[in-house]
From TrEMBL:
<dbReference type="GO" id="GO:0019878">
    <property type="term" value="P:lysine biosynthetic process via aminoadipic acid"/>
</dbReference>
<protein>
    <recommendedName>
        <fullName>holo-[acyl-carrier-protein] synthase</fullName>
        <ecNumber>2.7.8.7</ecNumber>
    </recommendedName>
</protein>
<dbReference type="InterPro" id="IPR055066">
    <property type="entry name" value="AASDHPPT_N"/>
</dbReference>
<feature type="domain" description="4'-phosphopantetheinyl transferase N-terminal">
    <location>
        <begin position="12"/>
        <end position="49"/>
    </location>
</feature>
<keyword id="KW-0808">Transferase</keyword>
<dbReference type="GO" id="GO:0000287">
    <property type="term" value="F:magnesium ion binding"/>
</dbReference>
<dbReference type="GO" id="GO:0005829">
    <property type="term" value="C:cytosol"/>
</dbReference>
<dbReference type="InterPro" id="IPR050559">
    <property type="entry name" value="P-Pant_transferase_sf"/>
</dbReference>
<dbReference type="InterPro" id="IPR037143">
    <property type="entry name" value="4-PPantetheinyl_Trfase_dom_sf"/>
</dbReference>
<dbReference type="GO" id="GO:0008897">
    <property type="term" value="F:holo-[acyl-carrier-protein] synthase activity"/>
</dbReference>
<dbReference type="Pfam" id="PF22624">
    <property type="entry name" value="AASDHPPT_N"/>
</dbReference>
Length: 210
């Protein structure tokens, strides 16, 4: 039985014309059109990588996640699998204490005491994520959860080896190596992508002080 853990750093990927058009040719036309509708290049790149991840043969279960600079894939032969990636960053819609209140049930009282005594709020967030997940790099945390056996009647199935805890960082060549083009090249698809802004500009907090 096997396990796969892959990661691709979308944030630092600057696709060439040939790379972008090849990636677009290796996915279904409906998915290619959906990706083309993203306003920002960052979102389009993340979605393209997710679509081009090869989920392995049908006997495998797989799950994808992306946040921050990475897209990740976890796959298991014979077991259900889930994966989640988070970037250590300040909550966008609430304060750190408010975010922690929402997540209260995730940890024991002792674990919360360790998290909240870590120092400034950014360090508390880093400690929070570190309790929950393994480090992919200094700013990104990834978690993998294994579920029941995929096939009915195999409830007693257990993998012979523990699943890997580290992720293999793929290059674009690795990502596309086993993919096969499905459509003809469309030069206009690159023209549309190259004029997109990378990401929305950061907005300053204009909330009036009370």
């Amino acid at each position: 039985m096997g396990s796969v853990r892959w990661a691709f750093r979308c944030g630092s990927w600057s696709p060439s014309r040939s790379d972008w058009l090849l990636a677009a040719r290796c996915i279904q036309p409906e998915e290619r059109d959906r990706i083309g509708q993203f306003v920002f290049a960052k979102d389009a790149k993340s979605a393209m990588v997710r679509s081009d991840f090869d989920p392995e043969p049908p006997a495998w279960s797989f799950n994808l996640s992306h946040q921050g600079d990475y897209a990740v894939l976890a796959a298991e032969q014979g077991l259900q699998v889930g994966v989640d990636i988070m970037k250590t960053e300040m909550p966008g819609s609430s304060t750190v204490p408010g975010f922690f209140r929402i997540m209260t049930r995730q940890f024991t009282a002792y674990e919360w005491s360790v998290i909240q005594s870590a120092g400034p709020e950014h360090q508390q967030l880093a400690t929070f994520y570190r309790h929950w997940e393994n480090l992919l790099d200094a700013d990104h945390h990834v978690a993998v959860a294994l579920g029941p056996a995929v096939k009915p009647g195999s409830a007693n199935f257990r993998p012979s080896l523990l699943p890997p805890t580290t992720f293999t960082l793929l290059s674009f060549s690795d990502l596309i190596a086993s993919a096969s083009p499905l459509t003809e090249e469309d030069p206009a698809y690159w023209d549309s992508f190259k004029v997109k802004a990378e990401a929305p500009p950061r907005q300053k907090n204009t909330r009036a002080s009370k």
